Each structure stands twice: as C-alpha cells, then as structure tokens.
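Dear H.,

Thanks for agreeing to be a second pair of eyes. The structure we're designing against is below in token form, covering all 84 positions.
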C-alpha cells in the first residue's frame, strides 16, 4: 500500500528555520520514498511499511533535539488498480 504524508513542522522558537531544515535533511537519508518540499509543508510518499517507521524515528529524533514544537500530519492512501 502506497501513502503520502503531508508534514508541517512548527518549532515554537524564534530561530525555527534550522530545526525545520535539519528535519527535512534527515528525511533525505532514506531510500524508497519520494520527498517534495514547498513553503508550507513536506510530502513523503512511499510504501506504508517504510514511511511510518521512518517518520516515527525522525519525529522522535526531532523532539529529542527540541521538545517545543508541533507536527501536523495529513495521511493519504494513494489509489491503485485494486481500489477500482
């Protein structure tokens, strides 16, 4: 099953940019996913069993660096030919 997750990260501090960029950079270390970034969010697409575990790891890593932040996620299942 393929999914896309739209992620918005809101560090609750004035110097927020480095935290967001570090999170996005960590995502680029993974294979078998597609990443798109725009000014409002980052989208990660790939197999469900790959995307959720890596996201769990990276959100935890981010909270360990800075507890004062908010993640907003939207999850979409990508339709395939079996969904007809």
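And this is the sequence the design step returned. I haven't edited it by hand at all.
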């Amino acid at each position: 099953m393929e999914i896309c997750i739209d992620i918005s990260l809101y560090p609750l501090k004035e110097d927020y940019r480095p935290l967001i960029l570090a999170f996005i950079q960590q995502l680029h270390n993974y294979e078998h996913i597609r990443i798109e970034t725009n000014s409002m969010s980052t989208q990660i697409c790939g197999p469900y069993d790959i995307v959720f575990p890596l996201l769990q790891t990276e959100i935890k890593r981010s909270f360990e660096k800075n507890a004062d932040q908010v993640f907003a996620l939207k999850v979409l299942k990508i339709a395939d030919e079996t969904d007809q």
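Two observations from my side: The CA atoms of residues 24 and 55 lie 11 Å apart. DSSP finds two helices and four strands in the chain.

Warmly,
E.
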